[in-house]
Design brief:
heterodimer, A: two-stranded antiparallel sheet, B: two-stranded antiparallel ribbon, 9 helices, elongated
Chain lengths: 136, 249
């Protein structure tokens, strides 16, 4: 943890106000990115509850599905989807910065690393769609 | 014809006299080829000689004239008045640093952190001068070159809310320089710098806001250096767990 800096007499020590994150658009985007994790966590818990209900039998699962169809739940899921998409996109963007991919002596351009994520996303989504629509 | 002017709202702070900084407005000639530093020099030369600020090269190399211009960390020698027309232009000392006087901030904390990361070539054994220089291929130079462009202007610290909230954080420029030497094929100091970077106030304090890289006037990407150092540190830790008797490089 960060310890306090010993103060020198005569100097003015500025303090960041609680609203510091409103000072720059980049700070707001950062805070939004951090908030997305709350929605991701809530959705994961919900998914676990659904799996638990399936384990309890068809009636428990049907009751759960009925609850999820309430207007409040639908509004939450629309908001959660927006945040999860934002979370995903910012994560993909981050890989371009964080992951240095080399082929021989040359570094793969970060844009290509990011593009690779989107390709994997589309392939995974198409596979799941195929599995849901064609196989079942 | 009356000369067009632009207003500068400048932060003033007199130690031992003011309890906290205040703002003073100055009207200066508006010239399209003037930068904010020219306007400050005009104030100091013609209006108020007590205005205090740092500057030196006036060409974006020395890194002395960093200030907040309209809330954004900038080198005032490359912030043109025309980009802020019609004004007013707010000029404040670099954010997150203690203020000594007017627009001058204390450098001690940054300089201590810079020394702490040992930003120089560390060799396990120096080879004799007679054996010649340590040679490097263009690819080896490319690996660290962008991180070596840092001019220690501290704009990245002024843009970093983590440093503002937790001043013990080693911070963007110092970590970027440590990373620059870790990447250098001539350097053997990774093990010496690793405990400093892996410390709780090292790379793990960073939450990847990313504004340090946005404000850097030299195109350095300190956010990338920090995140990549996290990856290197995590890999290092995993190897030490998986192979405690020799997995560490």
């Amino acid at each position: 943890m960060s310890e306090a800096r010993p103060a020198r007499p005569g100097l003015y020590y500025p303090k960041l106000p609680a609203t510091w994150w409103l000072r720059r658009p980049g700070y707001v985007r950062f805070m939004l990115r951090e908030v997305t994790s709350v929605f991701v966590a809530i959705f994961v818990v919900e998914l676990l509850v659904i799996v638990h209900k399936i384990g309890q039998g068809p009636q428990a699962y049907a009751d759960m599905v009925a609850k999820l169809q309430s207007p409040g739940c639908i509004v939450f899921h629309v908001i959660a989807l927006a945040f999860v998409l934002y979370h995903t996109i910012t994560w993909f963007q981050a890989t371009g910065v964080v992951q240095v991919v080399r082929v021989g002596d040359r570094q793969v351009p970060p844009a290509l690393v990011v593009a690779g994520n989107y390709v994997a996303w589309v392939v995974a989504s198409l596979f799941i769609l195929y599995w849901l629509l064609v196989r079942s | 014809m009356t000369e067009e002017t632009i207003t500068l709202e400048v932060t003033r702070y007199r130690p031992g006299h003011d309890r906290e900084p205040r703002t003073e407005s100055f009207s200066v000639p508006y010239r399209k080829d003037w930068v904010v530093l020219d306007a400050l020099n005009h104030i100091k030369d013609r209006v108020d000689g007590s205005l205090t600020y740092r500057w030196s090269c006036r060409m974006g190399v020395c890194g002395s004239c960093g200030m907040m211009v309209n809330g954004v960390p900038k080198l005032t020698c490359s912030a043109f008045l025309r980009d802020y027309h019609p004004g007013p232009i707010r000029v404040e000392p670099l954010a997150n640093f203690p203020v000594i006087r007017d627009l001058v901030v204390a450098l001690d904390d940054f300089l201590e952190k810079l020394r702490r990361v040992k930003p120089w070539l560390i060799r396990e054994t120096e080879k004799p001068v007679a054996e010649g220089e340590y040679r490097q291929t263009p690819a080896q130079l490319d690996a660290y070159k962008q991180f070596s462009m840092c001019i220690n202007c501290m704009l990245c610290y002024a843009a970093c809310p983590v440093y503002g909230l937790a001043p013990a954080f080693v911070g963007p420029a110092a970590i970027a320089l440590a990373y620059r030497y870790n990447l250098d094929s001539r350097d053997e100091g990774y093990r010496v710098r690793e405990p400093i970077l892996s410390d709780s106030v090292g790379v793990w304090e960073c939450t990847f806001v990313g504004e340090c890289s946005v404000v850097c006037p030299k195109g350095v990407d300190p956010a990338a250096a920090i995140q990549r150092s996290k990856v290197a540190g995590a890999k290092d830790w995993a190897m030490s767990v998986l192979m405690p008797w020799g997995g560490r490089k």
